[in-house]
Design a protein that fits this description.
Radius of gyration: 27 Å
Number of helices: 6
Distance between the termini: 61 Å
Shape: elongated
Oligomer: single chain
Strand content: under 5%
Order of helices and strands: HEEHHHHH
């Protein structure tokens, strides 16, 4: 069965990476950020802020797939950087709920959140830059031994890279 190429939806890499990071960030809030305290339990506002930022990143993926109104890639990058800064601030400074509790150790959730926020930033950066590889075909010069009349030219190896000696000399003024 042949599918109509116009009906398929391409999923861009940058927003997909950012969306995976957003999902990881949301999932991290359900895990322990500090000994036996989840991200949703320890925060009063930051948990809701992180969920909101992750949802905006998921909306950026939907916009990149043209399911909703387009979103400026700069907004997605700013949202991702803000999420990363919020997580980093919690790594450096313990929230009040655990600061006075004889300093509980940080647990796996905070590191998952850091990885998720970093993926959000990486995906947003991939969404804002345009990478391209330019390939310029070049004619190969015939080998020095000319084939005899009626004889096909000798096969050249494809994996041979041209050297500096293969380049023609520059024109003289």
């Amino acid at each position: 069965m042949n599918a109509d190429p116009r009906s398929s939806t391409a999923i861009p890499v940058g927003p997909m990476v950012a969306a995976l990071g957003a999902l990881l960030l949301i999932a991290s809030l359900f895990t322990d950020w500090y000994e036996d305290i989840t991200g949703f339990t320890v925060f009063e506002f930051n948990d809701l802020l992180l969920v909101g930022l992750a949802l905006v990143t998921l909306a950026a993926l939907a916009a990149a797939m043209r399911l909703v109104r387009p979103l400026d890639p700069g907004v997605a990058l700013a949202v991702a950087i803000l999420a990363l800064l919020v997580v980093l601030s919690q790594i450096v400074n313990d929230p009040p709920a655990v600061a006075g509790d004889n300093g509980r150790d940080q647990d796996v959730g905070i590191w998952l959140a850091l990885a998720g926020a970093a993926l959000m930033v990486a995906g947003a950066v991939l969404s804002t830059v345009r990478l391209a590889i330019a390939v310029e075909p070049r004619e190969r010069r015939p080998s020095s031994a000319a084939p005899a009349a009626g004889e096909p030219p000798a096969a050249t190896r494809v994996d041979e890279a041209p050297t500096v000696a293969d380049d023609p000399p520059p024109p003289r003024p």
